[in-house]
């Protein structure tokens, strides 16, 4: 199977059709039967062949893994739960584990990390925000953790005139367009799942953060945005204790400050440090260059967008109703 993420083509190879379906599930809208891959990911449902690995020094560690690295290969060991072997010369990654839950999460995170690197090289900016479209406008709303992003997304999609661009990371390109990036909608709130058919819902026990439920975007198939959009409305948001939801215009400076957090630094976006770099001087300089490129794109996004701030109350449903009505009358 092939995944084409706005120009990054990844080939996935596995011996199990059932496992392949599980791995491809979040990437439904990007699947291709044939394509020319830049990267190949091989997924093996077997124990990591530790004894066959060469002697490789430790490069660095993260809370979830240990990374061993030479100029040609990288071995990422998830403390015995699984291993990812990177062959830089062949642009091949091999995932080993008998745990399908691990394989599904590791494959997803590796794919998102590779796409993040691709965005940085191609001049595209990932933004940590809920994104929908309405009347050919791209509406981007960053929401802090616990602010009800999934509830807001599902409330908007109950209105047929709204389409989903992305639940988590819309893409802004050098042509000043927002590109659709629908993967899945994640939630910890089981109450919102009651109206969703079980065939569209699955669960992953994440390595660091525990269990979370995900809804296939194809449940809203007719409401998935397929085109890039140039007319952009960008929000910043702020939670207020015992407040009421409201929306007001804001300056470009405030919007840029939000973008520095949610796109340039990318808090909330998966960066995949174990797949990207360690701490050599060369790689640190590269990362500085990446940050400067992101900042330039963020400044352009702030400049071309219509800007608002939304005050979020403690009542997630009230926030959703207020935001929906505001956008419908925009």
H/E element string? EEHEEEEEEEHEEEHEEEEEEEEHHHEH
Mean pLDDT over all positions = 91
Structural class: alpha+beta
Largest sheet: 9 strands, mixed
How much helical structure, as a percent, in the residues?
25-40%
End-to-end CA span: 41 Å
The percent range for strand residues is 25-35%
Number of helices: 7
Uncertain parts: none
What is the spatial order of strands in the main beta sheet?
Answer: 3-1-2-4-9-8-7-6-5
Radius of gyration, CA atoms, in whole angstroms: 20 Å
How many domain modules?
A: 2
E-strand count: 21
Briefly summarize what is shown:
Helix content is 28%, strand content 31%. The chain has 330 residues and is an alpha+beta fold. The model has no long low-confidence stretch (mean pLDDT 91).
Question: Keywords for this structure?
Answer:
six-stranded mixed beta sheet, 330 residues, 2 domains
Can you walk through the features of this model?
With 330 residues, this protein is an alpha+beta fold. The protein folds into two domains: 2-122, no CATH class; 125-182 and 220-328, no CATH class. Helices cover 28% and strands 31% of the residues. The protein is built from seven helices and 21 strands. The chain has helices at 17-24, 100-122, 149-157, 252-264, 273-276, 281-304, 316-328; strands spanning 2-5, 8-13, 31-32, 39-44, 58-62, 65-69, 73-77, 83-87, 92-96, 125-126, 130-134, 137-141, 162-166, 171-172, 178-179, 184-187, 201-206, 210-216, 231-239, 246-249, 306-312. Strands 3-1-2-4-9-8-7-6-5 form a nine-stranded mixed beta sheet. A six-stranded mixed beta sheet has the order 13-11-12-19-21-20, sandwiched between helices. A hairpin with a 4-residue loop joins strand 8 and strand 9. Helix 3 (149-157) crosses helix 7 and helix 4 runs antiparallel to helix 6 (281-304). The longest helix has 24 residues, at 281-304. The chain is globular, with a radius of gyration of 20 Å. The termini are far apart.
């Amino acid at each position: 199977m092939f995944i084409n993420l706005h120009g990054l083509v990844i080939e996935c190879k596995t011996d199990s059709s059932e496992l392949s379906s599980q791995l491809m599930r979040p990437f439904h809208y990007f699947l291709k039967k044939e394509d020319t891959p830049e990267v190949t990911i091989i997924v093996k449902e077997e124990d990591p062949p530790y004894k066959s690995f060469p002697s490789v020094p430790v490069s660095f560690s993260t809370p979830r893994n240990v990374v061993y690295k030479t100029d040609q290969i990288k071995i990422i060991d998830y403390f015995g739960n699984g291993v990812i072997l990177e062959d830089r010369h062949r642009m091949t990654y091999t995932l080993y584990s008998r745990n399908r839950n691990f394989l599904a999460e590791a494959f997803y995170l590796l794919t998102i990390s590779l796409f993040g690197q691709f965005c940085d090289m191609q001049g595209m900016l990932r933004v940590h925000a809920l994104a929908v479209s309405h009347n050919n406008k791209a509406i981007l709303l960053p929401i802090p953790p616990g602010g009800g992003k999934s509830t807001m997304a599902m409330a908007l999609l109950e209105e047929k005139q709204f389409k989903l661009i992305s639940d988590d990371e819309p893409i802004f390109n050098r042509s000043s367009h927002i590109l659709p990036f629908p993967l899945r909608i994640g939630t910890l709130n089981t109450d919102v799942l009651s109206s969703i058919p079980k065939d569209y819902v699955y669960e992953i026990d994440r390595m660091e953060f525990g269990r979370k439920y995900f809804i296939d975007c194809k449940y809203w198939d007719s409401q998935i945005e397929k085109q890039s959009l140039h007319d952009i409305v960008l929000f910043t948001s702020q939670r207020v204790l015992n407040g009421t939801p409201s929306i007001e215009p804001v300056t470009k400076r405030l919007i840029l400050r939000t973008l520095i957090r949610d796109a340039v630094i990318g808090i909330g976006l998966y960066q995949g440090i174990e797949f990207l770099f360690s701490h050599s001087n060369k790689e640190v300089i590269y990362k500085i260059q990446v940050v400067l490129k992101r900042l330039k794109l963020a400044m352009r996004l702030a400049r071309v967008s219509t800007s608002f701030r939304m005050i979020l109350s403690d009542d997630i449903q009230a926030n959703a109703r207020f935001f929906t009505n505001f956008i419908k009358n925009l």
